[in-house]
Specification:
CATH architecture of the largest domain: Up-down Bundle
Order of helices and strands: EEHEHEEHHHHHHHHH
Low-confidence stretches: 263-270
Structural class: alpha+beta
Number of strands: 5
Number of domains: 2
Radius of gyration: 18 Å
Oligomer: single chain
Mean pLDDT: 92
Distance between the termini: 20 Å
Shape: globular
CATH topology of the largest domain: Glutathione S-transferase Yfyf (Class Pi), Chain A, domain 2
Number of helices: 11
Largest sheet: 5 strands, mixed
């Protein structure tokens, strides 16, 4: 079954391959839901790499298929969705505002998203691997969780190497996340948004990529309780930073309901 969108008299079939707990995947899901674009989601488990490489040559998720054409990378996905369905917009109409929103999107993508992952998971690989397994297998079902547990001696080091999680990056991650939080506080406009007076790709990106630290109730794939407790401890380490409440507020105002049109299939391993 495919999700489909009728625009300009043309029907587009839309399928999202995603990794439920990932904040970069959440960025793409939120854009689809914000625009109310009907789509099917397919969960790929920890064996996603060969399928992702086959689809895009990148080996990363999310991947969006529009009429069978694969688009990798959350930034490119949003760009494609803006063309497919311009309203409601995520790109500001004003060219200067749009440039600023895209610059902020790039900043949070490149400078904040990766340290957030490291801050949330990094130390637990050694001290509490069950928390890591529970978090990474969120939304995949019991079979995928058992498979990850059995393969964790191999998958864990692979995941750490792939995402550059090591002693130095673990030590640096809290400082880098704090820079991201301070950037939100500095950029925030009187409207409550990062650019202009309405929700944009800048707000969506910043909130989605910081969501693992805040874990707002609107996040569609909450991890198991053990992982939530570990994540809460990371969030508490940043004190009462106003940007954390801003993330929660963006979720309350704008996360909305899912535009997924089919029941989520069981996780598929490659």
């Amino acid at each position: 079954m495919h999700g489909s969108l009728v625009t300009g008299g043309v029907t587009a079939k839309i399928v999202l391959w995603h990794f439920p707990i990932s904040h970069y995947n959440e960025k793409a899901r939120w854009a689809l839901d914000w625009k109310r674009i009907p789509h099917v989601r397919r969960v790929l488990s920890f064996g996603y790499l060969p399928r992702a490489l086959w689809a895009t040559g990148r080996g990363t998720l999310p991947i969006l298929f529009i009429d069978g054409q694969a688009i990798g990378d959350s930034t490119r996905i949003i760009e494609a969705l803006e063309t497919l369905q311009p309203d409601p917009p995520l790109y500001p109409r004003d060219s200067a505002a749009r440039a600023r929103a895209l610059e902020l999107e790039d900043f949070f993508d490149e400078q904040v998203g990766h340290p957030v992952r490291t801050a949330v998971l990094g130390r637990n690989f050694a001290s509490d691997p069950d928390t890591v397994i529970g978090a990474l297998s969120t939304g995949m079902g019991a079979t995928a969780q058992r498979g990850m547990r059995l393969a964790f001696s191999v998958f864990g080091p692979f995941y750490k190497r792939r995402h550059k999680i090591h002693a130095a990056s673990i030590d640096a991650a809290p400082r880098q996340v704090a820079i991201g939080l301070d950037r939100i506080a500095a950029e925030l406009q009187p409207s409550g948004y990062l650019v202009g007076d309405r929700f944009s790709v800048a707000d969506l990106t910043a909130a989605a990529l910081l969501a693992p630290i805040v874990m707002p109730p609107e996040f569609p794939y909450p991890p198991p309780e053990r992982a939530r407790r570990a994540i809460a401890e990371v969030g508490e380490s940043f004190g009462r930073h106003p940007a954390l409440e801003w993330v929660a507020e963006m979720y309350r105002r704008h996360r909305g309901s899912s535009a997924e049109i089919a029941a989520r299939p069981r996780a598929a391993s490659a």
